[in-house]
Amino acid sequence: MESDPDPNQPAVDPAVTDTAADIATMRIRGAATIADAAAAALATQAERSTATDPAAFERNLRAGARELYETRPTAVSLPNALRYVLRGVEGETVAALRKSTIERADTFRTELEQAQSTLGEIGANRLRDGDVVMTHCHSTDALSCIEAALESGTHIEAIVKETRPRKQGHITARQLRELGVPVTLIVDNAARRYLDEADHVLVGADSIAADGSVINKIGTSGLAVNARERGVPVMVAAQTIKLHPDTMTGHTVAIEMRDEQEVLSLEERVEIESPSEGAESRSTAVDGNDDKDSSQSESDLTVENPAFDVTPPRYIDAIVTERGQFPPESIVTLMRELFGETTAEPWEECVCSRQTDHH
Ligand SMILES: O=P(O)(O)OC[C@H]1O[C@H](OP(=O)(O)O)[C@H](O)[C@@H]1O
What stretch of H or E contains 186? Predict the structure, then answer.
């Protein structure tokens, strides 16, 4: 086994860096899936760490956790997963620390899967035979409710919102069709019209704040307001790993702003800004020509691409978790029970950090 080249600068394993890149670029996406991948990456970091002493091992692990944490800011399942794993790291030797990290990550992943399936069974109780469910984005927690309903013989149909700009609605449509659910795919702007045909709005969550606000894919809040106006109940399917502990102490949830090119390609930007310049300027822009890049930065055409929005609790009928169904206003009691007063950053949680503090 190689020795650690520089124990003061622990190397993050390339597989962890790859997972972080996949999360940042959304090849790995969805709050629960991100949490699962982050826990798996920490186990990989532990498994492959070349550290020869406990302090170096701990630095390795914390560096990996930090790299994963810094990928996307909104889904709290990511820091909650890192915190869960790091809290279970214990032992006096590298071998013991490694073993406990891997076991803790495995436990986390198993519990995540179990929580989703329990949540699904609870959520399915809200769905009646023949109900039509309108979905937004793609949520494995929301789909778990539909899957459980189908398993108990309940017939469900779905109206699936496309979900611009990344069209995660296509993933939802594909998975629902695989389950045999009749699907009507609509553009986001058609949602209010089709609410007349829906019995439920069913969405997931990236984070849930202490006041019961739900942070989910951009467009959720408008959908919920329209659903309230049309008398369609809004159900949020969210494992407790989506509860955001920092909001108990007054912090707000950061809303991720993503790249403008998810909304407007460079070519489309040129079409808007200089339609008369024709194909030549389009191709230089697409090639990433430096002059074009600098003119873009000086442009007065601004594209904003927030990935999430906040739905106030008054527009939500129920938050369904693996611990039961809650009115949004009462979710804080569950948060206190589960998290206590936790506010530390996930990489500060590692038990062995106490050892490095003395150095
Ligand atoms: O954990 P599950 O229920 O799978 O997904 C929860 C939420 O994560 C997704 O975010 P993104 O597509 O990663 O930006 C959507 O906002 C979805 O509702």
Answer: strand 183-186
Q: Is 144 in the pocket of ligand 1 (CB under 6 A)?
A: no
Domain positions in the chain: 14-117+343-357, 124-250+311-339, 264-297
Residues marked active site are found at 137, 206
Q: 110: left (phi > 0), else alpha (psi -120 to 50), else beta? A: alpha
ipTM value, please give it: 0.98
Q: Residue 244 and residue 157: Cα distance in Å, rounded?
A: 32
For the domain made up of 14-117+343-357, give the CATH fold.
Four Helix Bundle (Hemerythrin (Met), subunit A) (1.20.120)
Binding positions for substrate: 29-32, 72, 216-217, 242
22-55 confidence digits (pLDDT tens): 999 999 999 999 999 999 999 999 999 999 999 9
What is the SS3 string spanning 121-178? HHHHCCCCCCEEEEECCCCHHHHHHHHHHHHCCCCEEEEEECCCCCCCHHHHHHHHHH
Gap from CA of 168 to ligand 1 centroid (Å): 9
Quick: pLDDT tens for 155-210.
Answer: 999 999 999 999 999 999 999 999 999 999 999 999 999 999 999 999 999 999 99
- Ligand 1 centroid, distance to 1 Cα (angstroms): 40
Residue 168 Cβ inside 6 Å of ligand 1? The answer reads yes
| CATH code of the region 124-250+311-339 | 3.40.50.10470
223 lines ligand 1 (CB under 6 A): no
Pocket flag, ligand 1, residue 207 (CB < 6 Å): no
Amino acid at 56: A
Does 204 sit in the ligand 1 pocket, CB within 6 Å?
yes
Residue 223 Cα to ligand 1 middle (Å):
16
Going from the Cα of 140 to the center of ligand 1, the distance in angstroms, rounded, reads: 8
Coil, helix or strand at residue 234: strand
Question: For residue 309, what is the enclosing H or E element?
Answer: strand 308-311
State the Cα–Cα distance between residues 72 and 28, nearest whole angstrom: 11
Q: Which amino acid, 187?
A: V
